[in-house]
Amino acid sequence: MKFSYNIISIIDILGVVQGLLFGVMLLLMHSKKNKPTLFLGLFILLFSLEPIPNILEDMGVLLNYPLLELPPIHFHFLAYPLFYIYIQKISVFNGKKLSYWTLIPGIIETIVGLIIFFLPIAIKLQLKVSYFALIYFVLGLCYSIFIGILTIRWIMLHQKEVDNQFSETIHKNLNWSKLFIYGSIFFQVLFLIHLFNDNHTLYFFVTLVNVILIYWVSFKGIIQENIVSLYLFFPNTIEAYYNVEDQNRIIETSVTPLELPMEEKVKSPFMTTEEMQEIIDMVRGKIKKSESFLNPNLTIIDIAEETNIHPKRISHSLNNLLQMNFNGFINKFRVEKAKKLLVNEKYKNLSVEGIGMEVGFNTKATFYTAFKKYEGCTPAKYRS
User: Fold this and answer.
1) Cα(101)–Cα(123) distance, integer angstroms
2) DSSP-assigned beta bridge partners for residue 237
3) Quick one: which H or E segment has residue 237?
4) Reported pTM
5) How far is CA 232 from CA 93, 193, 229, 315, in A?
6) What pLDDT, on the 0 to 100 scale, is given for residue 116?
7) How many other CB atoms are found less than 10 A from the CB of residue 275?
């Protein structure tokens, strides 16, 4: 199966054009309220410029204008750090110090690229056929993978914290960004293989993957909203969980909301097992009585306000005593309620998906996943 370079060039041009359009769109959307789009827009612009040298070569432009050889539009060290910072800024940890240091190699890369571009043509042509280009690409790939690992680690910490604060995590867990990192690394590896094996078919799929990635990350980025930690909206000074009127048990937090740790690795010294059990019993009793779990948008702040217990104490108790996060804790109540409705004659005309909605799940997928996790079977099978 052979593909002409004309077709491949058209696909490459399509990727560049749509990347430029989406990138500019995101830059225009940039505002004080939506600062992260600046970094995503810049990332998409740089990512989409990557095929331009190949387009120029495939269309014969470089033969007629050798001065354009080695244009400074390769950003192996700059593009992915921009995406990493974008993820940091939209995550629940956006108040923490951002990793701007990751941009330094990319800035150096850009300066060196500009210097090389203005070198004499003869030197540029020698560099192009030397091992310089291959070494540069391999180092760039390694750095991109390194940044990808940092990004995935950040996303995993973000997802853990989201599960500790929200009962509904759709559009908050950033799964799409993790998949994008995997896909883009796959794209880079394919391109590296192409450098060693000049195969038209392989290069066709490389360009196709590039176009798909640009479109996908642009679309997801446009609809993605910032996820703000709910702890920012909870007062620092709160009353103790077991006696609202006991002024001697008021707990003063020593850190501001923006300085909350990413992971609470050490158990709080003022939280004994008995105290954590008392917190869980009180929370469980309140939830059962009010059936607040039926609210699909229930958060740990809602429970904290209802019980007058600081959300960090609730989360800490669930994590350390039950080895559960808030999301799993609430879904357990929803599954128990769903089990009753599934065998209730009054609800026999209601679909399984409808029952899931009735007990607080927003989607069929999350309902089925949670039900199977706790009951070992699907709700449809349980009903039958």
Assistant:
1) 32
2) 252
3) strand 237-238
4) 0.82
5) 11, 47, 6, 15
6) 92
7) 17
